[in-house]
Amino acid sequence: MPLLTGKNLTAASSTFNTPVRDFWQELATALLQSQPQCESLRLKEENDSGLTIDFLPLQPHQEHPDRILNLSDKEETALFRAHYTMRKSAQRLAPKLQFAKGTTGIVTTADAFYLPVFLVSLRMLRKTGCNLPVEVFIDDWTKYDSTLCDAVLPSLNARCVVLSNIYETAARAKPPNHYQYKIFAILFSSFQHVLFLDSDAFPTEDPARLFSTAPYTTHGLVTWPDFWAQTISAHFYHIAAIPEVPSQSRLSTESGQLLINKDVHRASLLMMVYYNYYGPDYYYILLSQGSPGAGDKETFVQAALAVSLPYYQVQTPPGVLGSHMNGTFRGIGIAQADPILDYEYLSPMRSHIHPDKVWQNVDLAHPDTKVDEGQNKMHKAPQKPRPIFLHQNNLKLDPAKILDDDRVYGSDNRPCRIWGDKKDRVKEFGFDVERRLWNVITEEGCRLDEASDTCMRLTKYVDGVLD
After folding, report:
1. CATH of domain 11-313
2. Inter-residue contact 291 to 42 (CB < 8 Å)
């Protein structure tokens, strides 16, 4: 659909044609027919120390955690049969998946709370020179803001899409909630090639190039790592009838950003929908025993595995955004590596002969040191891939509220940089990314009224800290 302007933009963007409605009717029916015929799963109560598991690559055969209370053979068989039914439906429905062939765009979700945060993220995206269209999915018309959706967003090549306009056409489908919105936004987006970004995530450079080279072109699904090991139950693999993957074979998933080719991953996408539709009762628990609320993050990779389609998880571990104060590091966000550089770098899996997680100069040396000495060779290992996505998942960048947060002030209660020393950021990103961020926050905070208290406070902060 062409990008329109004016009061009818959101209505037009949220008008789904007959093939889309028919497909959703069939998919909703398949979801209902594949409902597990057993009680909701429950986890054993444990203290906070049991919620995360460290990633131990030198112990690849460490057992999967087993904290599910009520998963007898009877329940597991019920889940197995329902999963088999859905997988057959996914294979049948995959060719009918609707999207505009050859299109590329960015997709996100936002509500009234996150829209101010998203506007900062969107402006940060545009500062990179990226002009890809953006679809912003909102729950229903009660979340609609005419000024934002029909004036501000179109000026930034973005538009609102009301999810309920299509979702509610399947009357028997239960309403989505919280984590489930992400997968339905991807499903109903008009694009074939999708970069999904959480509303509080943004790139440091134009991400459009990611679509034209490996690993996206070779795998069609690219995910990024979290800080922890997987906590996927071994029972999931029994239910999905696929080979069990060692718990320490990869880090868990951090889904602030995701790349997917909907043409390649048609069946994967439908299984992602299934795992999220029945996520709160079953699959979030099966896929994340540490924190079931984060179970949606593992639905992407596991869905691809379930239908034997490829995926690529960035191997470079995430970095932490934040600053030190009084000897304590205050983490407020996550930095994720460029997948193209990561694919070329091929991070080493740590082992007993190479305990480091990065390449060292000595790794390139000739086994016989005299050979290098005779040729006067100096070997230098490639640099660790630099970050391209910043997910500000902790400190929310709402221009009207950010200066009320203690984390933007130092020990003497004076305003300070939130991402640490300027020299370190310039070395890491090639420019002062925090300066760009605060310029954008101020731009958005002053958009409505340059004489407002919000605008004056932000301007004073920028002048005092960054200048």
Report:
1. 3.90.550
2. no
